[in-house]
Design goal:
- With 290 residues, the chain is mainly alpha-helical.
- It has one domain.
- It contains 14 helices and no strands.
- Helix 5 packs parallel to helix 14 and helix 9 runs parallel beside helix 12.
Length: 290
C-alpha cells in the first residue's frame, strides 16, 4: 500500500513537471557518440596493426574511453542538457561531468601509439609542450571557470542573445579542462613532465583555485544570477536559492571526488613502481650473496 502510494506520488511529480524527463534525448548527439565509439574500437582492435607501434589495447583502457564518451553524451544529449537551461543545479551537474569526469577518462583511454598517430612528431615536440605546460594549464582552466561564473559574464553568456558566444565559451572551457587533466593522465611519456609528488600537488592546487567560485555560489543567501531569477521553477520543493546552492555543492562534490580518485590512483601507481624497483634491487643482490 505504502509502496504503491510512493510510486504514484513520484509519477505525478514527474508528469506534472513543466519539463518531462522523457523529453530531451538528443538523437544527433548519440549518433555522434556511437560513431566515435565504433571508430575507436575498430582502430584499437581490428586495425591497430596498421599504425606505427600499434599494439592491442587492453579492455580496461577501452572501458575508460567508452565511459568518457558515454558520459559526454549523457551530459549533452540527455534531459540534463534540457534541464540545464532552467535549473542551475542541472547546469552545474552538466559542467561538472564535462570538466572533471570526461577528460581524464578520455586521456586514460588513448594509447600512446594512437596519440602519436594523431599528432606529428614536429607538433609533439614544438607545439604541444607549450599548450600542455602544467602551470599554464592550471591557470588557464581555473581562470576561465572563475570568470565564467562571474554574475555579469554568466548572465550574458546564458541569456542566449548571442548563441555563438555560449557555444564558443563552452568549447573553450572543455578544451581547457582537457589540457588541465593532460598533466595528470598524459598518454605521451615524452610530455609527462610531472612526477608523482608533483601531480598530487598539481591536483591540490586545482582544488584550491576552484574553491572561491564554488564558495561564492554555495554560501550566497540570495540569487546572484539574473538568468536564474528569470527561469521558472521546475520542482516545487527546490526553491531558486536552494537550486543555486545545490548547484555549487554538486560541482564541488564531483570535483573533489574526481580529484580524490586521481590522487588515489597516483599514490597506488607510485607504490607499485617503488615496490617493483625494490624487488629488482633484491633480485640483483641475492645472486651476489650466494
Amino acid at each position: 500500500m505504502v509502496r504503491s502510494f510512493l510510486i504514484e506520488e513520484v509519477w505525478q511529480l514527474v508528469m506534472s513537471s513543466t519539463i518531462s524527463i522523457f523529453d530531451g534525448w538528443e538523437l544527433d548527439t548519440w549518433i555522434i557518440v556511437i560513431c566515435v565509439i565504433v571508430s575507436y574500437l575498430l582502430v584499437t582492435g581490428r586495425y591497430y596493426a596498421h599504425f606505427k607501434e600499434g599494439i592491442r589495447v587492453s579492455f580496461k583502457q577501452q572501458f575508460y574511453f567508452i565511459a568518457g564518451v558515454m558520459t559526454f553524451g549523457f551530459a549533452l544529449g540527455s534531459p540534463i542538457s534540457m534541464l540545464a537551461h532552467h535549473m542551475f543545479s542541472a547546469h552545474m551537474l552538466q559542467q561538472s561531468l564535462l570538466y572533471f569526469v570526461v577528460p581524464p577518462l578520455i586521456w586514460l583511454g588513448i594509447p600512446t601509439w594512437l596519440f602519436r598517430a594523431m599528432f606529428s612528431e614536429k607538433i609533439r615536440k614544438s607545439v604541444l609542450p607549450l599548450f600542455t605546460n602544467a602551470l599554464v594549464s592550471v591557470i588557464v582552466f581555473n581562470s576561465f571557470l572563475s570568470f565564467y561564473h562571474f554574475p555579469i559574464i554568466y548572465d550574458f553568456i546564458m541569456s542566449g542573445e548571442l548563441p555563438v558566444v555560449m557555444y564558443v565559451t563552452h568549447v573553450l572551457l572543455f578544451l581547457s579542462a582537457m589540457l588541465m587533466w593532460f598533466a595528470v593522465t598524459c598518454p605521451e611519456p615524452d610530455l609527462d613532465r610531472l612526477n608523482h609528488l608533483k601531480k598530487i600537488g598539481y591536483i591540490v592546487l586545482n582544488g584550491l583555485l576552484l574553491y572561491p567560485a564554488c564558495a561564492l555560489i554555495i554560501f550566497a543567501d540570495e540569487l546572484i544570477y539574473r538568468t536564474t531569477k528569470e527561469s521558472h521553477q521546475i520542482f516545487e520543493f527546490l526553491t531558486p536559492v536552494a537550486d543555486q546552492q545545490f548547484g555549487g555543492i554538486i560541482m564541488k562534490i564531483v570535483q573533489e571526488g574526481a580529484f580524490a580518485v586521481a590522487i588515489g590512483a597516483i599514490i597506488f601507481s607510485w607504490y607499485r613502481i617503488e615496490r617493483s624497483e625494490e624487488t629488482e634491487i633484491e633480485n640483483d643482490i641475492e645472486p651476489q650473496r650466494s
